[in-house]
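Re: [help] complex structure
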Amino acid sequence: MPELPEVETTKRGLEPHLIDRIIRAQTIRNPNLRWPVDAECAQLTGRKIGALSRRAKYLLVETEIGSALWHLGMSGSLRIVSAAHALRTHDHIIWHLSDGAQLRFHDPRRFGCYLFQAKGTQHPLLTHLGPEPLSDDFSARWLASAAKNKRVNVKAFIMDQRVVVGVGNIYAAESLFLAGIHPAKAAGEISLPRWQKLVSAIKERLSLSINRGGTTLRDFVDPDGEPGYFAQELWVYGREGEACKRCMSVIKSLPDAARQSNYCPKCQRLRLKK
DNA sequence: ATGCTAACCTGCGCGC
DNA sequence: TGCGCGCAGGTTAGCA
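Output below.
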């Protein structure tokens, strides 16, 4: 599920329900996530929640002693429900809040995580992360310098969290379409003006998706249980075999890619038109 | 250093 | 109706 817009949507949805509440108790129904739940997370019990923040696809819930570090993996979601709300399979972690509500972490595939970051420290998972795509640090110049001599294809390149964070399979495909770049193009062979188009496309797509509440393909819901509506804006992702909405060519997928890499063969040329 | 692959899991849709 | 297969929004470790 979650790429940057979905995590940002989750963060915004949680803020009014979490800030200034106390975590009265925690229930760990299944600690076996991507990494086992940190034992230090127990220290969060009894603490008052301050600000929420997001770094890459990580959600940080701050308290006076440190932060809960959540990741939603492929299928995770965080929801606020009343204590009376029926528990579901795969509701792995529950925070019992001081206002009587509960925060529930639901994650069928268990690729998410719930870790602890002590105050004043940075969790190892957060080191080596690239710039935030919606910040000014993410620019065509940065991409061009990072891509120098790189033979890796541009799609894998922009999905590398050291290059830029938060761009997953959906938004990589969508941004490359809007920038007119073939996903198999070698990163090191892309011109500065073309990087500029891509940077603009990434910022625009992510921003629009946040405004639409994220992309719901199967099961993403925000903390209030609402789906996102960006799926109807998709140009190529998940549309293999269908007609390009711009030129009516048949949308294709990279033949050798491990995961679906959809693109329009006419709008996204491997070599520039002469 | 670079760049692929396997691995972590469950659920769902499809073809037979 | 049921079953096996392939695939799914992420990310890291490990190997060539």
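The two ends of chain A are 39 Å apart (CA to CA).
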